[in-house]
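## retry 2 of 3
previous attempt timed out at serialization; input unchanged, resubmitting
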Amino acid sequence: MPARSQRLLSRTTASALVLACLAVVHPPATATGPPEGSAYAGSEIAKHEGSAPVDPAELRLDGPTVPGIDVSSHQGDVDWPHWWGQGVRFAYVKATEGTGYRNPNYGQQYHGSRQVGMVRGAYHFALPDRSDGAAQANYFVDNGGGWTADAATLPGALDVEYNPYGDDKCYGLAPEAMVAWISQFSDTYLARTGRRPVIYTSTLWWDQCTGRVGDFTATNPVWVARYADSVGPLPHRWSVHSIWQHSSTPIDQNLFNGTMDDLVALARG
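## retry succeeded, writing output
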């Protein structure tokens, strides 16, 4: 090979190496974004719909309620005796997301809440564009999302809300496909545990992404997120809610719609 060609080849190789190094130090913008597993119940609802703090004394309630909280890895190890002392009597703990993420703090959070006397359950953050509903329901049950008839374990919850990892709020699914995905998750969870999952969502997301074509009212309790002084309009066809997530400050706060006996009855199945 002529000397001039060898010099050009050497320069080309060196330039490629420099560009490769720069790509490692400064990854392209498309590689950035929230890390997998960072989403939690209401995280995307708060971003899209707002989460203005409301004084608990100003909440408009129609009957008895039971206070609860929900947690994820963002809280780390939770001081459960503190929250029990604040009157919290139930908790939902994030167990899984998609088919590749498990909450590293799940054990302390799930078992710790029960140790202080709370009724507790696990929830799964859905990623309907990654795998089908059956795969994610099985992953959830296999990694802490099961249910037992001990009057202390709430049925698992399916968290379906805005897409945390993309611009398409509905994960690229048409309403009929979204309803089918949720149905498949619910059917699989029922087959594995004997219970239907609670569905966690917001009215705005649900009505947009299911197109108001599905009806889960006869099978699945609804846990609705709305950061305001009232629960407001419910997702399509539900006429009553089971749980209302009314605040995300200083932690996700919920109210069960009923008495403590009603909550235990939901747990007992």
